[in-house]
Specification:
Layout lengths: L1 E6 L3 H16 L3 E3 L7 E6 L4 H17 L4 E6 H5 L1 H5 L5 E3 L4 H14 L3 E3 L22 E8 L10 H5 L3 E2 L2 H13 L4 E6 L15 H11 L4 E4 L9 H7 L8 E3 L7 H7 L5 H14 L4 E8 L6 H14 L3 E6 L17 H24 L5 E10 L2 E5 L5 E5 L7 E10 L2 E6 L2
Parallel strand pairs: 1-2, 1-3, 3-4, 4-5, 5-6, 7-9, 9-10, 11-12, 12-13, 16-18
Antiparallel strand pairs: 7-8, 14-15, 14-17, 15-16, 17-18
Length: about 425
């Protein structure tokens, strides 16, 4: 059969889509573009914000409208916590955020019998890490390696602990073996991902620290670039920085989760650090990895956020000198404590603060990218945009190179100047 995927959300979702693609290919099915005429369509959903929920519904409706005879399956976080809303969209198969192999079995059963299929569990009762095959389609240059699932932080704004369940970790040996498989498959970069990779090991015997896992992966595939997913500030200890600073294949780009630059807002969010502790973690990374790119997320317009609190956040992010930021207006998620908090702000206020924060974020991004002028960067070429080859440096800055260069190969590039959303440079022969 011809099968197409549409994936929304985080790198963990991307990993799980890649794993499902591989499982289907091994069974002889053909993976096609979502725009093609296919037998089956799969929408892998996200539910981190209300905007994500809206996008889920829009793509599901579009798919059903354009392909009324095809089998339509929906899985992911949205169907996990809003199954009835998904059922009402006339889908054929409903799965949740786990049990991906079962979901594919249901999809194939629906295609053969033309009967509705559904398997949903209670995410909060999950205790086992679901091992899926690493790697996806061959044309990709970067592979996701999922090492962890679930979260137990229960930040007041977040629905994900309810849709993903408690922490489950991949055994260290499994993660290392999959990294080696990805190397053999021809990938040049691995992104170590999970719902909260800082939680890796908490459910394993002896509770090994996550830096041990990262170190073992780096040692196992020394010729592959290893990039980390989002990090909780609390895990960036002196031990963490010292243990990893010597690995040349560890990408010096760290997404250090923040959410707010104001201590009173962080407390209402039930984030487990202060701005002072956050800055200490940031400085540890910069001391251990000189010139590294620090990126982050920020939520604006959290319930009760005053103008003074917002200004404190703006001042704090300026001190942090981030290389890039994702700015999100607070999104009210039913079932979370923050949804019932007093002081819910109007959308107009949230959008206005978002625009102001984006201006600061863009200024910092330009400053960081401009600082790369005159440096030499190793660029993994991923494709063409117009007359430029395009790829990413180790610090994840997008680099435009005039001319055509082989895809999935690393070029040594001298950075010349800012260019669009990245920089431009010339290959050093």
């Amino acid at each position: 059969m011809k099968i197409a995927f549409y994936t929304l959300g985080c790198k963990t979702n991307q990993y799980e889509t890649q794993a499902m693609e591989r499982l289907l290919c091994e069974q002889g099915h053909e993976i096609c573009s979502f725009e093609d005429d296919c037998d089956c369509y799969i929408v892998n959903t996200c539910s981190v914000t209300a905007v994500a929920d809206k996008k889920n519904r829009a793509i599901i409706r579009r798919c059903r409208r354009e392909h009324p005879q095809a089998i339509l399956g929906v899985c992911g976080c949205y169907s996990q916590h809003a199954a009835q809303a998904v059922r009402e969209l006339e889908v054929d198969v409903v799965g949740g955020s786990g049990g991906r192999q079962q979901f594919l079995e249901d999809l194939l059963a629906a295609a053969q019998s033309h009967t509705y299929q559904e398997h949903l569990d209670n995410a909060l009762r999950r205790r086992e890490f679901e091992v899926l095959p690493a790697g996806g389609l061959q044309e990709r240059t970067r592979a996701m390696l999922k090492v962890q699932d679930g979260c137990t932080n229960f930040c007041t704004y977040c629905i994900i602990p309810y849709t993903r369940g408690p922490i489950r970790s991949a055994p260290l040996e499994t993660a290392v073996a999959q990294a080696k498989q990805l190397e053999q498959a021809g990938y040049r970069e691995i992104v170590v991902t999970g719902i909260e990779i800082a939680g890796w090991g908490k459910d394993l015997p002896g509770k090994p620290p996550v830096w041990l896992l990262i170190a073992e992966i780096c040692k196992a595939v020394p010729h592959l670039r290893i990039r980390l997913g989002s990090l909780e500030p609390r895990i960036v200890t002196e031990e963490f920085a010292a243990a990893l600073s010597g690995f040349q294949n560890l990408c010096p780009q760290f997404h250090l989760s923040m959410q707010s630059g104001c201590d009173t807002v962080l407390a209402r969010m039930k984030r487990k650090y202060t701005t002072e502790e956050y800055m200490e973690s940031l400085e540890r990374l910069r001391n251990a990895f000189p010139g590294c790119a620090i990126t982050t997320d920020m939520i604006v317009g959290f319930p009760g956020e005053t103008e003074e609190e917002f200004e404190k956040s703006l001042s704090f992010i300026r001190q942090c000198r981030f290389a890039d930021m994702h700015i999100f207006p607070y999104s009210r998620r039913p079932g979370t404590p923050a949804a019932e908090m007093p002081g819910q702000l109007p959308n107009a206020v949230k959008e206005e603060r978002s625009r102001r924060a984006i201006v600061v974020a863009q200024e910092m991004s330009e400053t960081y990218r401009r600082s790369l002028t005159g440096t030499v960067q190793a660029v993994l070429v991923e494709g063409m945009e117009g007359e430029h080859s395009v790829g990413h440096a180790m610090n994840y800055v997008k680099i435009y190179i005039p001319g055509a260069y082989p895809r999935n190969e690393i070029q040594t590039v001298a950075v010349k100047s800012l260019y669009g959303d990245g920089v431009t440079g010339e290959v050093i022969q």
